[in-house]
Amino acid sequence: xxxxxNQPSNQIRLTNVSLVRLxxxxxxxxxxxxxxxxxxxxxxxxxxxxxxxxxxxVFLSVSKGQTAPSQDLARAFGPKTALNxxxxxxxxxxxxxxxxxxxxxxxxxVHNEVIDIVAGKLxxxxxxxxxxxxxxxxxxxxxxxxxxxxxxxxxGKASGTATPTNGEASKEKAKEMPIWTGVVTxxxxxxxxxxxxxxxxAWQPIPVSRARMRLRVTCATNILKQAAKGSVKKxxxxxxxxxxxxxxxxxIKDRILSYVEQVESQDTVGQEWEVIGFVEPGAFKGLGExxxxxxxxxxxxxxxxxxxxxxxx
Length: 313
What we know:
By secondary structure, the protein is an alpha+beta fold.
């Protein structure tokens, strides 16, 4: 029976881990993390390193349990660099190694989150009803499988009788339109959902538009009839391009109402005027900037509902 079984002092066995690797100073360094925690840390969801790292050590090989000698760490990261700073650099800049099952689960998780976000933000333009997640998923699959090619082909056919110049202009316009190629794990679900919505709105595989926001705008009554001054030139240029130059002129009240697509109610209480209505998401920023610039603190915008939708079959 063996009397002594010695394990090297720099050997630590770990299992069921996610590895983060960084090559520096001609050597590859690794840290051992809990599964699914690296992305949460990088996205800001997880902030406690104790919940991310299985062990606060740097390895040459996690699979072999071989920790990195201090001399190697000093040569690669600098002799005065603390171990915690080295771990942070590897965690933030290193390449994450995940297994096939974990990668598939991660992709599916992001995919579902993207679909949920898009389904909650887009509606049928006529009925204002939301689509099911299944319909949104099918529409995005259609875009990713064709990459916009089918729609571009249709545009080409439609412009077949037009002059070559118009045909070329149509192709150039199609190239500039947003394309959806599918979900990836290297971007946040929120940013990918925004890309997906832009592509769906541009190509319209199903009739969609952004769900409107419901806002309350209040303003002091004594400035409502004043002529709007700020940003008139800039907004006039933008609105003239859209054939809506009339929005750039008028009183402060007129300009506020020009941003509101549908007025739900208007009322005056004492020295304050209030309007509640529906605004396209793209107009929200302009409305806020106008209120801040023109009312000098005597007006405000309050979001009552970020996305107004109607449930239905």
